[in-house]
Design goal:
The protein is of the alpha/beta class and about 600 residues long. Helices cover about 60% and strands about 15% of the residues. The chain contains 20 helices and 16 strands. Strands 10-13-14-8-15-16 form a 6-stranded mixed β-sheet, sandwiched between helices. Strands 5-9-6-7 form a 4-stranded mixed β-sheet, with helices on one face. Helix 1 (about 5-15) packs across helix 13 and helix 2 packs antiparallel against helix 3 (about 65-70). It is elongated. About 30% of the residues are buried.
């Protein structure tokens, strides 16, 4: 297992906030009732231990009346002791067990709901999700597959934490409850001139210690294997999702063989790691199954001499065996729960590392390029230096101004930092230094590959605003102007539009979004590159006509697009030097 104290600290920091949250009283009440029900089951186990002795004594004594009473109603012993019938105990036991599970599931979904909201909020806050995606390490510790960590790991954490925690508590209470019973039933033995009282308790302790040590020795690698399995499963599932989202591109390239090989390669990692888990689990199961089977007859064998010597009746023997099983089982909790603990520790490690990655990303949110609001009418760059995530300088600009209402086109060869400059202006690029002063107003950035969320077409066009802000007529008009008038009758259709529309249609839809939202500053990062020159010209003429008050800054390589702008900037770079901007006269329209 991983180092115990850091692991428990991580588990505590993930679990504790919920029980101090705005739901703390309902959470604590539910947990308290569940604990009470669990302890009630332990109490009924104690009652059944005494009932077990009385029942088998009635069989040994051939006492029919006591036999019937103990089964159905209740029985009073010759000493006046009261023993409830099995039917009553069993009925109460069933009711308690049912509601224990029901309330446990209720607490699980409430706790998971709260944790999911917290993790999603923190992941999205300060664009931590974006920074994490840029700084993912090769090992992926804390940053790989955030979808799995939020969707599956949180579910496993809540369920396993409650299950293991309550089970441990029940076993501790069982140990306390039954150790006294076993001690009184055990009597004493004489060994090497010493009288050892409660010898069955000491035997149970020795038996549990040996079993725990052997289990840890055999099962120790399972925690690491479980961690890897969760990652390999998530990687394989992500590959399947990627294939589904890019079916047309794969089909056009005829890339089925490559995708097939890549999927099987990722799945082979799942299989190989699973095989290692199987081998280790087989060894662990062989040990724990043998341990548990021996524990069935072991207490009877140990207590048999006292039974055959007439020191205890048959009921006393069965009570001794039952009490020994409860004490030994409680002491051996680690043995029976080892596989579950290994899986739980892997889940805790994945969530804790993810949480640390989010915290690190949010802590770094205020560093780097400073994006501030200015009362001036121009967007200004001051001593701006942009870098790659590995620290390599990418772009430098001492002082540049973009005036409100003008249109600017930026060109230059790929890889010099044009898109990165847009990201910095948007305030999402975290690597670099300097200052960007932005006038007040609405900013809209249209990348080369538009983002189309899931949902109805009206929701897709209005994104990120709510679709209810715009009338059907306004949305239909925007689609019509962008050349997508045929879609105006499908506003309520719910599809994965990113798969349904071609690349050019997606870019037209993004232009329709700009026409609908009417931003003050519009940034187009090769936003019409999938269209023919004639269509590009039509869309730019539409933008100039419909958004005459909007400042338009474009990244484009086409001279035809450049002709629709007032200014032309070119990004150039000498070998091994950061890129810089220079201004050239635009081609005439």
């Amino acid at each position: 297992m991983i180092k115990l104290l850091p692991f428990l600290k991580d588990a505590w920091f993930i679990a504790r906030p919920y029980f101090r949250s705005e739901e703390k009283w309902s959470a604590r009440l539910l947990l308290g009732v569940i604990i009470l029900l669990n302890l009630s089951l332990v109490g009924m186990d104690v009652v059944l231990n005494f009932w077990n002795g009385a029942f088998y004594d009635s069989l040994q004594n051939k006492d029919w009346r006591a036999f019937v009473d103990l089964l159905f109603l209740y029985h009073r012993g010759s000493d006046g002791s009261f023993m409830p019938g099995f039917s009553a105990v069993a009925t109460i036991y069933i009711i308690v067990a049912v509601y224990r599970t029901y309330l446990n599931q209720w607490l699980q979904i409430r706790w998971r709901r709260w944790l999911t909201r917290v993790f999603i909020n923190e992941w999205l806050a300060d664009r931590a999700y974006y920074r994490i995606s840029l700084t993912s390490s090769a090992a992926g510790l804390g940053t790989d597959n955030p979808d799995q960590r939020i969707a599956e790991d949180l579910r496993s954490f809540v369920g396993d934490t409650l299950s293991l925690g309550l089970d441990l508590l029940s076993n501790i209470v069982s140990l306390i409850s039954f150790v006294g019973i076993l001690w009184s039933l055990s009597g004493s033995i004489h060994l090497l001139g010493l009288t050892i009282g409660g010898y069955m308790v000491w035997i149970a302790l020795i038996y549990a210690v040996i079993g725990t040590w052997l289990t840890h020795l055999v099962g120790r690698p399972l925690a690491t294997l479980s961690f890897r399995q969760q990652r390999f499963e998530a990687d394989f599932r992500f590959s399947l999702v990627r294939l589904r989202e890019n079916v047309e591109g794969i089909a056009l390239y005829g890339g089925e063989d490559d995708e097939h090989a890549a999927l099987l390669t990722r799945f082979s990692a799942v299989v190989m790691n699973w095989w290692a888990i199987m081998q280790r689990t087989k060894m662990l199961n062989a040990l724990t199954s043998g341990y548990q089977q021996i524990a069935v007859v072991f207490p009877v064998i140990v207590a048999a001499p006292r039974y055959f010597g007439g020191q205890i009746p048959l009921g006393g023997l069965t009570r001794t065996a039952s009490a020994f099983g409860q004490v030994q089982g409680a002491m051996s909790w680690f043995v029976g729960s080892y596989a579950s603990l290994a899986a739980w520790s892997a889940t805790v490690e994945r969530l804790a590392s993810f949480q640390r990655s989010i915290e690190a990303a949010r802590a770094a949110a205020g560093r780097g390029v400073s994006v501030t609001e200015t009362a001036e009418g121009a967007l200004e760059l001051h001593d701006l230096r942009l870098a790659l995530p590995n620290g390599t300088d990418l772009f430098e600009a001492e002082a540049w101004r973009f005036l409100r209402g003008e249109s600017v086109v930026i060109s230059g060869r790929s890889g010099l930092g044009k898109s990165t400059l847009f990201r910095a202006i948007a305030g999402i690029w975290p690597f670099g230094e300097g200052k960007i002063a932005r006038p007040p107003g609405r900013y809209l950035f249209l990348p080369q590959r538009p983002y189309l969320p899931l949902g109805s077409l009206r929701h897709v066009v209005a994104y990120p605003d709510g679709a209810d802000r715009f009338s059907d007529a306004a949305i239909s008009a925007a689609l019509e102007k962008a050349g997508l008038g045929a879609l105006a009758t499908r506003l309520d259709e719910d599809h994965n539009w990113a798969l349904l529309l071609s690349g050019g249609e997606q870019q037209r839809l993004a232009i329709a979004r700009a026409l609908l939202l009417r931003p003050d500053w519009l940034f187009l990062d090769e936003a019409t590159s999938n269209l023919d020159p004639e269509a590009e010209g039509e869309l730019y003429r539409c933008l100039k006509r419909e958004l005459s008050a909007t400042t338009v800054i474009s990244i484009a390589h086409s001279p035809a697009v450049a002709a629709f702008h007032d200014r032309k900037l070119v990004l150039t770079a000498a070998k091994a030097q950061p890129a810089s901007l220079s201004e050239v006269a635009p081609a005439p329209a």
